[in-house]
Amino acid sequence: MCTYLTEKIELSGSAKGAAGWIKVTDGSVYLDHPVHAPFGHSLNIDFLAPELGPSGRVAVELSQESARALAKAIEAVLESAPPGLV
Amino acid sequence: MYDALFAESITITGHGGDSIEAYSARPLDSAPRGGVVVIHHMPGYDIQTKEIARNFAAHGYNAVVPNLYHREAPGASPDDAAATARAQGGVPDDRLVGDVAGGVAYLKSLTNSDGKVGTIGYCSGGRQSFLAAVSLQLDAAVDCYGAFVTGEAREGTTMVPIVDKTPTLSCPLLGLFGADDQYPSPAQVDELEEALKANGKTYEFHRYEGAGHAFFATNRPSYRPEAANDGWEKIFAFYGKYL
User: Does residue A72 belong to any structural domain of this protein?
Assistant: First the structure.
C-alpha cells in the first residue's frame, strides 16, 4: 500500500545527483513503494534542496535490512570517531 | 480492420479551473467510444500508467490520465513529482474529484464519445476511483486494491476511510484484490462488500489467491501474471457491459 507516512528532518550538507552537487537542507525518510528498487516496499530517503524545486533531490531506495545496517553503520562511525572530530 | 490510435500530452481543466497536464490515448476511428479516466498510483504519472491508457485505446476506449501532481511539480520527472506530492501528504480528496471531473469532461467532449465514462485506479488510485464514483456521475468504476476505502484511519496520514460515502455511489463497481494483500486486507474488502450490499449497489468483486498488493504492476516483483491476466479480462468485460 501507499503508506503516506513520512519523517521529515532538517539536514545540513551536500549530495551529488544527476545535475551535480546540491546543497541539502531537508530530508524525507519513508517506507513505501519504490520507483526502481525491486521490492514491494523500500526504505526511501530523499536528500532535498527545496529551493531547486522537485528536481532538487537525491533519492535512495533501500531494502529494509540494508537500511537498518546503514543506520547502524552511521551511528558506529560517529561513535568511534577520534576525539575532537565530532 | 482499422486499428490506429493516437496518444499525446494535453492540457485539461481540473479542480478549481486549474489547467493541468494529462495524457490522452484514443482510437482514431469514428465509432462511438466509451471513455476511461485512468487514475495514476502514488508513484506518479509514469510510463507504466501511460501504457495502461494506451492499452485501453487499443481495446477501443478513449482514455485520459490526469497528472495529479501537476500543481506541485509541473514538468518534473514523475518520480521527483511523486516525492514532492508525497511529502505534502498526497492529493487532497476534493482536488482529486475535481481533476477526475476534468478528465470526464474531456472524454465526453471528444467527437467519438458515446457519452459514457468510467474510472480505474490502482493502489492509492483504487481508493480514488471509488472516491470519484461516489462524488461524480459515472457509468462504471474499477478499484484495483485501493487501501483506506474501509478500515481505520491511520494516525499521521491524510487518508481517511470513505466507505460511509457508499450510498452515493453512482455506478457499478468492479473490485479486484489480492488475497495476500494487507492494505486492503481481506477483512477490509469484505467490509466494503457489505456496505455495497447494504446499499443495494451493483458490484463485482474478485479476490485472487497467491496475489498481494500491486499484482497488475508488470515492472514490480509483486506482479502476478495469472491474476493480472484474469483481472484484465474482468475489466474489459465490465467496461464492455457498462461503457
Answer: yes
